[in-house]
Amino acid sequence: MSVEMVTNAAGRRVPAVVNGKEQVPFQGVGKYRPSGRKCAPPIRSSADYPANGDKRVGDLETALRKCGLRDGMTISNHHHLRNGDRVAVMALEAAARMGVKDLMWFPSASFPCQAPVIELMDAGVVHHIEGSMNGPLGDYCSQGKMRGLGVLRSHGGRWQAIQDGEVPIDIAVIPAPTADPFGNADGSHGPSACGSLGFALADSIYADHVIVVTDNLVPFPCIPWQIQGNNVDYVVEVDSIGDPSKIISGTTEITKSPDRQRIAEHVARFIRDAGIMRDGFSFQAGAGGIALAFVAYLRDYMREAGVRARFVRGGSTQYLVDLLEQGLTDYILDGQTFDLAAVRSIGSNSAHVATSPFTSYNYNGKGHFATFVDAAVLGATEVDANFNANVVTHSDGRLLHGIGGWQNCLSAGCTIQGAVVPRSDSGDRRRGDDPGGSERADRRGGHRAGDCDQPPASGSDRCAARLGPADSADRGDRQGGRADLRGQAPARAGQGPAGGRRQVGRRDRAGYGVAGVGPTRWDRKGGRSCPPFLRGITIVDGRLEPAPNPFALVVMAHLKTKATRGKKMIRLRWKIRLIRQLYERDYERQQVLELLRFIDWVLKLPEELADRFNAEVRDLEEELKVRYVTTFERLTRIEMLERLLKCRYKELPAWVRSRLEKASVAELDRWTEQFVNAKRLEDVFATG
Question: What is d(CA 456, CA 495) in angstroms, rounded to the nearest whole number?
């Protein structure tokens, strides 16, 4: 059977039709504008529901019959119980006993505990899955055994697909750790408490029929409620909805690997030293051992600096809970709960707030929280030097897990991909020099991985740092995999969407303000060693140079320091070129001063080129009519006077540095003259 393929704006070949539905390929960041009206379930009447509010029925099969389950329908579930969930399989097995065929299962994610669904697919009960697939289900799909095409969506993309009518849900089956007979439900209390139920919220609002399944029925009202009973058709009481101890999985445990611990520390240091960590800042740490370890390191830096975040975003864990309980953040905005400490916190602390993909990630709405986040730290199985990332598959093309909120988080002010990747100074596929690499990636496995709702996670329009040790083993070139006869497309989340009816754009701006970068922050002992977190970065020049964010200049200066060792004239040219780029960008005065200091620090020139360099800088400043007049002359004078002051007075108080930074050239000259006869530090800065 031939599959019509089209080329999207990311240059990827993607199917024009997926599971019988026409797709809208990715058109470019900000190019697609959704239209129309939101989907809505049928209007109901209270006359058809019990006047006493008791919607209980005897079992799940009865509830499904009353909802009119029949062949070809769509059943949805949430994944807040993760690998401990029992209700999804319970519902699909009930459908099998009813003789129903060709269902589409639409979970927010699936886990190894749902492996029995494989038998139901083989038996024809389930036709295909549209939702993140882990473990045995991922293997089954990757082998091309599923009759339909597997579709993965991000958390925000799934909400959009439901809200916009791309995926109509016939019956939503919602496991609830606590519920009342009317259908109000909560995830934060009860013997099977799992925290937030945010992923089930869209299902409860937009599905034609909603069934709540609980093992902890309480009298009306269930307080608090995360699911409103007014949207619920039936309530089913069972012995157990799942095992909350299995919420914890491999992706929600802190890494024990020394390499990954090192990456986590470097990420935390970067956020501190780039000035992102400040009072009132915000960050998000995703699942994955590196991201969890990063929070532990950042917590220590925040405590040392006396910094308090306004909010942190999760997947919440013990590490975020520690921040809240130690007074290091005002709030946790919780999208899902990753361990039992976080479950306890969300159930007892009003500052630990349950959120949903609607509030956090839904681009097809009137704003979302992801754009408020200062920094998002994300894990990935593979990252290349152009910031393309794979979060979906193993290197052999097998489905590893779903996209989650990964691509949604790219709306944050700064996105950092933490992964074990090698440093390479020669051209290879990680540097974008293998024209066949993306084509090979396109032919892996029997699934469509990569969120159809998202633009590519490309370094050309994101401020993203790839941080990793230089000596890590390379898995990037071992792609291969079975050629997919169905023509399924991308397995790399970052290399572009696989075509879809909806897209999530990102802000066209990239970056954040650099505050205090340079030797005064990185070179605390007065040496000239390169900042450790830059040593693992290799960037393609053409990708980085046009980027408007200040960090691009920082990394470019570092790369050219390595590339021009022993080549003094080439270094001179690059130093002038980078200064020109700095002057041509609309940065604040303090940013320019700090970046100039950094460029001068790393691209050190021999003494014989000093006069030529200064003359070229003066010509450049005159040519561009730089508003920071005599900037380089000021820096030279500041550095000279600061060295003199340190030689005589040793440690300098903070007010001295502040005075130097704000001084004019004339003031610096006068203070240098006064230094000669000054008896006290204060005499140097006397105005008399």
Answer: 5
What per-residue confidence (pLDDT) applies to 439?
A: 28
pLDDT tens-digit profile of 658-668?
A: 888 777 777 88
For the chain, list residues with pLDDT below 70.
1, 249-253, 286-287, 385-386, 417-549, 589-590, 626-634, 688
CA-CA distances (angstroms) from residue 233 to 59, 216, 542? 13, 18, 57
- The amino acid occupying position 73 is M
DSSP 512-554: ----S-SHHHH-TTS--PPPGGGTT----HHHHTT--SHHHHH
Between 589-602 and 631-649, two packed helices, what is the crossing angle to 10 degrees? 70
Burial 202-223 (b: 16+ CB within 10 A, else e): bbbbbbbbbbbbbbbbbeeebe
pLDDT given at position 420: 55
* Residues whose CB is less than 8 angstroms from the CB of residue 235 and which lie 6 or more positions away in sequence, other chains included: 55, 56, 57, 179, 180, 181, 182, 183, 211, 212, 213, 214, 217
Q: Is 153 helix (H, G, I), strand (E, B) or coil?
A: coil
Compute how many other C-beta atoms are within 10 angstroms of the C-beta atom of residue 99. 9
Phi, psi of 566 (to 5 degrees): 75, 5
| Cα dihedral 260, 264, 270, 273 sign | negative
Q: One fold for both 38-130+167-244 and 250-476+490-495?
A: yes
Q: For residue 283, what are its two tokens?
A: 């960050």
Closest CA to 352 of 374, 366, 368, 336: 336
For the chain, domain boundaries = 38-130+167-244, 250-476+490-495, 520-628, 630-688
C-beta neighbour count of 647 within 10 angstroms:
8
DSSP secondary structure letter of residue 202:
H
Domain 250-476+490-495: give its CATH superfamily: Glutaconate Coenzyme A-transferase (3.40.1080.10)
Q: Taking the model in full, what pTM does it have?
A: 0.67
State in words which class domain 38-130+167-244 has. alpha beta
| CA-based nearest residue to 408, from 34, 154, 78, 199 | 154
> CB 2: neighbour CB atoms within 10 A?
5
Question: What is the sign, positive or negative, of the torsion defined by CA atoms of 69, 71, 73, 74?
Answer: positive
User: Which residues, 6+ apart, have CB-to-CB distance to 260 below 8 Å?
Assistant: 289, 290, 293, 418, 420
3 state SS of 43: coil
Phi, psi (deg, nearest 5) at residue 227: -115, 130
Dump pLDDT digits (tens) for 180-231.
Answer: 999 999 999 999 999 999 999 999 999 999 999 999 999 999 999 999 999 9
Write down the pLDDT at residue 450.
Answer: 33
Straight-line distance from the first to the last Cα atom of the chain, in angstroms, rounded to the nearest whole number: 90
What's the chain's length in residues? 688
